[in-house]
Amino acid sequence: MTESSNRTTPVRRVSSPPAAESTARHNITVDINGETIEAEVESRLLLTDFLRDRVQLTGTHIGCEQGSCGACTVLLDGLPVRSCLMLAPQVDGRSVRTVEGLAAPDGALSPMQQAFCDHHGLQCGFCTPGFLMTLTSLAERETPVTLNELDHHLDSSFCRCTGYMNIRAAARHALGLAHVEGKPAQGDGT
Amino acid sequence: MKPSPLDYVRATSVDHAIELLASDNDARLLAGGQSLMPVLNLRLGAPELVVDIGRIDELRSLEFADGDVPATRGVLRIGAAMTQTEVATHPDVNGRWPMLVAAIAQIGHPQIRNRGTVCGSLAHNDPQAELPAVAVALGATMIARSVRGERSLSADDMFHGAFTTALEADEMITAVEFPEPSPEQGWSFREFSRQPGDFATAGVAAVVRRNAGSIESRLVVFGLGGGPTRATLIEEALLNAAGPDLESSVIEQWAATLDPVDDAHTSARSKIRHAQRLLVEAVAEAWERM
Ligand SMILES: Cc1cc2nc3c(=O)[nH]c(=O)nc-3n(C[C@H](O)[C@H](O)[C@H](O)COP(=O)(O)OP(=O)(O)OC[C@H]3O[C@@H](n4cnc5c(N)ncnc54)[C@H](O)[C@@H]3O)c2cc1C
Ligand code: FES
Ligand code: FES
User: Fold this and answer.
1) Which of B38, B110, B195 sits opposite A66 (nearest CB)?
2) Which CATH topology does A27-174 take?
3) What are the φ/ψ torsions at residue A92 (nearest 5 degrees)?
4) B68 pLDDT above the threshold of 90
5) Ligand 1 centroid – CA B32 distance (Å)
6) Which residues contact B249 (CB under 8 A, 6 or more apart)?
């Protein structure tokens, strides 16, 4: 059923609390940051809560649970999505990348993470995992990214601390847009 | 918050999905989840069964049918599991259905469009959503299936008031068909939203074309509360017009028929002003492209 069942990597089974409700539970197999994870999940479990509470990857944050704030953004088969707007059973057989999957196994930061350090792209850090995942998808894309496109992606997460300019500076450096002229795109109201 | 207890089934085929819809009257389809999941998380809805149609192979298609004679236009058929991103980034869609691409660019954020489907947006019919208005402007047709059979719904018949459509509770949209705009047709898509990524406060999808000496148009206004609504008074005024400039008395007469309500951010009066401005701009732009 799942592609990951053919892999040679070890499978890790994560535990679930005993059933507290009569609704169906699902056995899922998910590739998370390159590791094959098996679990039994309730139908209504959000992907965010699965990652945080069952797989113990608490880097994916929860802000609004309605798709607006971006703190919960993860990569699903390489594309950024809101993990608060997915049920855990939906990711059976798919691959999910979280902020924990960005650094190398020896702890070396990814180029985007390093750029956030170098340019002071975070303060409290609450929004950072979401920004990093969205911007990593741009960095890993084959087609070149324009400054305008970068700004539209920066619009998609809330940061209450930095005022965005240092996040933008970090992303411009990591995306090779540091020398491209351009003011931040302003909502022109249309 | 978190969803209330529910059952989840991943449908493996359209037949499977419509059987589940028919057998359980508290079942809801889950496509991209970008409208349904906030509803579940906020507990504005608590269906017993959620039927996931997002991975049904037969719905994961984007087809281009050519017209049978060179003069007839092509048709773009979008399966119900195709995301907004997949549709908007397809090179042929970009070249031949520019209004669809322009409208999708205004929907939420990239992360929302990576999951949200075109058909889900049409089925949901949020009064502030772009795609129902585009479907009316371009004369799209929805294909609906239930255990009782299949039928086609024209966009003119599909959208009723806010969040209501002609779909029956046991029906699902399997695909939407957009006829290819003719080359001599001009179009414009304009909206005002408070910040990028927000739903539209007001918007206009406009199509104009010359036909046998008169001007045929479809001017669709959205965001004002009800479903997408054609500005028929303006369409009539354009019929014999020599240019895109509209008389202010006609615009005022049309504006008087609008009936939005105040909300937390925008007064009804200012919604009407936005709609008026957007309509005038859209007619001018569409005319120029004709
Ligand atoms: C932060 C945020 C911002 C957004 N901004 C915008 C915006 O600016 N403009 C906009 O238009 N939308 C916006 N959306 C909503 C988004 O476009 C949704 O993707 C879309 O409205 C619904 O598509 P979906 O595939 O996600 O449907 P779902 O959420 O899965 O379903 C929505 C409803 O339609 C029904 N349904 C789904 N598919 C079918 C089908 N094939 N047949 C019958 N019924 C079906 C479901 O049962 C449900 O009731 C936003 C969403 C978020 C979270
Ligand atoms: S928690 Fe998912 S977008 Fe805010
Ligand atoms: S660094 Fe604190 S919210 Fe962004």
Assistant:
1) B38
2) Ubiquitin-like (UB roll) (3.10.20)
3) -55, 125
4) no
5) 7
6) none
